[in-house]
Amino acid sequence: MSDSTGILTELRQMTETRERDLLRQERPVIGWCCSYVPIEILESGNLVPFRVLPSPPVDMGDAYLNPNFCPYVRAIMGEGLVGRYPFLSGLIIVNTCDGMRRLYDGWSYFHDLPFLHLMDLPRITTPAGLRRFREEIENLVERVFSHFGATSTGETMKACLEMSNKTHMLMQQIQHLTIQGRLGLPASGLIEIFRAGGILPRSQFHRLLERVVQPWGGRQDHTGTPVLLTGAMLENTAIPTMIEESGGRVVLHDLCVTGRHPEELVSLTEDPLTALARHYLLRPPCARMQETERRIDHILGLIRQGRVRGVIYYVLKFCDTFLYEAPVLRKKLDQLGIPMLTIESEYRQGRGGGVQTRIQAFMEMLNSSGTRLGPINQNAASRPEEIGRS
Asked: Among 176, 245, 250, which residue's Cα sits nearest to residue 217?
């Protein structure tokens, strides 16, 4: 058994036993659905965060939500209806889109959950947006701490922020190794590992990441045409496997489950709630934010960083925010001579024959043609200056 196979086998065992452990957990377990949720708040109050990532397919949600809603939202609804998360004491939903808003309504009406919170997220990264998001985080602290009788000290919060920074540093190190072809893990395995970070305790997740980094620090593996995999929620790990089997190499991810991590660490010197608001609001934006130009410039920066030859844009059906963004991004990439393949899919695991054929054809096209990237406006790609620390 290779080191990579051993790590992935151990990872799957840990994730399988984690939910059984949570059933015996005395501390409240709080579910969350969006990477903009500041889970450090929950950790500082001795609560257990758990990222809700439903396993497809879950058709029960189709009977309770409009079938034209995002299938990820319907899957969360369906798993809740069939009792998939008996260990949850609460759930935090972010108002990122109309589907998530309706998910909050559905859970409020059909589920007898002790605590349910809808968190608003500004669409802009201006000083006003930062103040608004800090207010939302403060409201979350007041509601969740009051409901569960939780408390937090300055020392506890600082320790949680330091653990969060360690997570980000390890993830950045893994990203650098992946770009350099020195990691030794398949892209599907790396996505599995990052997904596990939402359910494993920080200390256990850190040990796993350290094991991923250490064995292959000097390895060189540059085989395969470098591609960027971007989009929203990737539930289908068969997609990166098909890319690699077709002669590609996923050098960077920009997804809701992996890759779209904050570029800077949480500040330990300013007010913790302001630091968290800045940390999350100024992360590389998703398509839901009102910053299409900054998001596209971020993607172009990733393309240059990874010397990417092509972009595969994966989006779930009826995910309006990403479907609106796709043609704008495609137009920009066409101007720069970067091919882009859009894959629109239901929330289903496994290999679809049509998808596999399209990926194979796309990789054959990349392998038979050269790709050159034009100049990028580096100033436009930087973080907004409006929210500087004064």
From this structure: 176
Beta bridge partners of 345: 316
Convert the pLDDT of each residue in 60-92 to its tens digit.
777 888 888 888 999 999 888 888 899 999 999
pLDDT in tens, 178-214: 888 887 788 888 888 888 899 999 999 999 888 888 7
User: What is the C-alpha separation between 297 and 303, in angstroms, rounded?
Assistant: 10
Distance of CA 204 to the CA centre of its chain: 19
pTM of the model: 0.90
186-367: same fold as 11-154? Answer: yes
pLDDT > 70 fraction of the chain, expressed in percent and rounded: 89
**Range 186-367 has CATH code 2.40.30.30:** no
Three-state SS string over 89-139 comes to EEEEEECCCHHHHHHHHHHHHHCCCCEEEEECCCCCCCHHHHHHHHHHHHH
First-to-last CA distance in the chain? 54
Nearest alpha-carbon partner for 77 in 105, 117, 48, 118: 105
**CATH T-level fold of 11-154:** Rossmann fold (3.40.50)
Q: How far apart are CA 169 and CA 164, in angstroms?
A: 9
Domain locations along the chain: 11-154, 186-367
